TrEMBL record:
Domain Lipid/polyisoprenoid-binding YceI-like: residue ranges: 27-187
Protein name, as recorded: Polyisoprenoid-binding protein
Organism: Cupriavidus necator (strain ATCC 17699 / DSM 428 / KCTC 22496 / NCIMB 10442 / H16 / Stanier 337) (Ralstonia eutropha)
InterPro entries recorded: Lipid/polyisoprenoid-bd_YceI, TTHA0802/YceI-like_sf
Alphabetized UniProt keyword annotations: Signal
The UniProt record lists the keyword Nucleotide-binding: no
Signal peptide start-end: 1-28
């Protein structure tokens, strides 16, 4: 398994991410300028999108050998930015990500299988704020010239991970549904 580092936008996603998608071992360099992970939520019905600026990924993917393919994505939650400095600071605080206590969100795949046509189902464990939940990330894979591209979106409920504690538990202000969107672009070494 190769270790890839990415300093730029990720997630599901990553995640959160992370979102955990794997890449063929021959395709081991993450293109930070073309990769991203965002989280999209609604506040009082208005979409808000934030970006994670830092993540690491350890990946191994072969479409002909899905049983031995795997992915691990770690997102630096303190790298999250949502637009203005005050909101960004609050989201990194105790009621939201509690980045000081839980600096990483992690996705670790347990299996990768063919999904609906053109997609892969990446099953795994997503850990945010110390809580681990089984998830399945639907992802696409394609080759674009000299790069491989993995994209997808993972819907989560923020309250399952205690994101938005205290007064923020009220989902009428900030919706419970969050989409972790990711685009991971890998180039040959």
């Amino acid at each position: 398994m190769k270790r890839n580092s990415r300093r730029g936008s990720l997630v599901i996603a990553a995640v959160l991410a992370a979102s955990g998608i794997a890449a063929n071992l021959a395709w081991a360099q993450v293109d930070a300028a073309k990769s991203s992970v965002t989280a999209v939520a609604r506040q009082i019905g208005v979409p808000m999108e934030g970006k994670f600026r830092k993540f690491d990924a350890a990946v191994s993917f072969d479409p002909a050998k899905l049983a031995t393919s795997s992915a691990k994505v770690e997102i630096d939650v303190s790298s999250f930015e949502i637009g203005d400095a005050e909101t960004t600071k609050e989201v990194k605080g105790k009621d939201w990500f509690d980045a000081a206590k839980y600096p990483k969100a992690v996705f670790q795949s347990t299996s990768i299988k063919n999904g609906t046509p053109g997609k892969y189902d990446v099953a795994g464990k997503l850990t945010i704020k110390g809580k681990t939940v089984d998830v399945v990330v639907p992802a696409t894979y394609r080759q674009e010239g000299a790069v491989q591209v993995f994209e997808g979106a993972l819907p989560i409920k923020r309250t399952v991970f205690n994101i938005g504690d205290g007064e923020w538990k009220d989902t009428s202000v900030v919706a419970d549904d969050v989409q972790i969107k990711f685009r991971i672009v890998l180039a040959k070494k």
